[in-house]
């Protein structure tokens, strides 16, 4: 079977074209949307991600600042900064980078981000809004899987979707988004018994594990659609997904590549959330 590559470039370009137009309209009327990235680590991967977000924002005309609190910042300091930015009318959107300093829990600090500015949907309030089906920002990575599926005309309603991973940033919010698309959802994790049997029963498999090439042809039934969310460091320093593409290709009907699949759509959706937050703030 020929396996279609579910590339994210075109989906991201379509989203970015709309974002750029809306940023232009806002900038003409008042000021460019403003995103603030809050960093409390000295992790190289996080540093790389911050740079790529700043570049993406710049390309679209979004102002993007970074506040560096240092890798040993206390939870109180991080919370206070997030609360200050949430109350600042000149800031439209706030993103807290991970990893956090050791001993600092994401839920304990992200709770200080106002839901209206929580463009990556990380706070307990944003996650609750998503679960309740109320307006708010879903985590961009989870939303990117659904956006990629829609762009490539992959039907979700009535289909069995198996998600491998149950984190608050990908697996759990994606389960909510898939339910909202009327999919039947199974969420797998490290204690799932016989993972290959569970995923091979699904029409759509989403790998969001953080283990390089864990999902192989044995986990996927003939003709299934596979989304790879994983971004792991490969042996040569490149990025490797959670899916083993060689063994899945030829068996799956479609597979999202890493890099170039979910990643670019995630960034485009984050920037879209920034402009939506700015539009809402300025019309309030
Ligand atoms: P995470 O918080 O570490 O969660 C990993 C999940 O995978 C957990 O639920 C864990 O189960 C489960 N798991 C681990 N080993 C397993 C195994 N052998 N079998 C089945 N399940 C297993 O990771 P995350 O933050 O969700 O990220 C997942 C992946 O997505 C990572 O590669 C990350 O880099 C990537 N990511 C990509 C983007 C993007 O924009 N493309 C954004 C965010 C994350 P337990 O709950 O039982 O521990």
General description of the model:
By secondary structure, this protein is of the alpha/beta class. The protein has two domains: 30-114, Rossmann fold (3-Layer(aba) Sandwich); 140-263, Rossmann fold. It is built from ten helices and eleven strands. The strands form three sheets. A six-stranded parallel sheet has the order 1-11-8-7-5-6. β2 (34-39), α2 (44-60) and β3 form a beta-alpha-beta unit. The radius of gyration is 19 Å and the shape is globular. It binds NADP nicotinamide-adenine-dinucleotide phosphate. Residues 141, 164-167, 169-171, 188-192, 195, 208-211, 214, 229-232, 242, 262-263, 266 line the site of NADP nicotinamide-adenine-dinucleotide phosphate.
Runs with pLDDT <50, length 5+?
none
Number of helical runs? 10
Number of domains: 2
User: What is the tally of beta strands?
Assistant: 11
Going by CATH, the homologous superfamily of the largest domain would be NAD(P)-binding Rossmann-like Domain
CATH topology of the largest domain: Rossmann fold
For the record, give the distance between the C-alpha atoms at the N and C termini, rounded to a whole number.
Answer: 52 Å
Helix and strand string, N-terminal first? EHEHEHEHHHEHEHEEEEHEH
Assembly state of the chains shown:
single chain
- The radius of gyration over CA amounts to 19 Å
Mean pLDDT: 97
Hetero groups in this structure are: NADP nicotinamide-adenine-dinucleotide phosphate
Structural class: alpha/beta
| Strand adjacency order, main sheet | 1-11-8-7-5-6
Largest sheet descriptor: 6 strands, parallel
Proportion in helices: 40-55%
Beta-strand residue fraction: 5-15%
Choose one word for the global shape.
globular
- The CATH architecture of the largest domain: 3-Layer(aba) Sandwich
């Amino acid at each position: 079977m020929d396996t279609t590559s579910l590339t994210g470039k075109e989906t991201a370009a379509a989203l970015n074209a709309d974002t750029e137009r809306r940023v232009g309209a806002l900038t003409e009327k008042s000021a460019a949307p403003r995103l603030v990235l809050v960093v409390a680590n000295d992790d190289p991967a996080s540093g790389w991600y911050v740079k790529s977000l700043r570049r993406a924002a710049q390309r679209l005309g979004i102002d993007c600042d970074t506040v560096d609190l240092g890798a040993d910042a206390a939870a109180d300091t991080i919370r206070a900064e997030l609360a200050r930015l949430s109350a600042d009318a000149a800031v439209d959107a706030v993103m807290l980078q991970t990893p956090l300093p050791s001993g600092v829990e994401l839920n304990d600090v992200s709770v200080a981000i106002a839901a209206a500015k929580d463009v990556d949907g990380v706070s307990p309030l944003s996650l609750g809004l998503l679960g309740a089906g109320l307006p708010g920002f879903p985590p961009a990575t989870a939303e990117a899987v659904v956006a990629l599926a829609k762009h490539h005309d992959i039907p979700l309603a009535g289909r069995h979707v198996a998600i491998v991973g149950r984190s608050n940033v990908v697996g759990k919010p994606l389960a909510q988004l898939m339910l909202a698309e009327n999919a039947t959802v199974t969420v797998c994790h490290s204690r799932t018994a016989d993972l290959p049997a569970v995923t091979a029963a699904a029409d759509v498999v989403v790998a969001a594990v953080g283990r390089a090439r864990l999902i192989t042809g044995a986990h996927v039934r003939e003709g299934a659609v596979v989304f790879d969310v994983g971004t792991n460091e490969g042996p040569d320093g490149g990025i490797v997904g959670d899916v083993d593409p060689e063994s899945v290709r030829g068996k799956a009907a479609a597979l999202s590549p890493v890099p170039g699949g979910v990643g670019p759509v995630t960034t485009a959706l984050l920037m879209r959330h920034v402009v939506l937050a700015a539009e809402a703030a300025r019309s309030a």
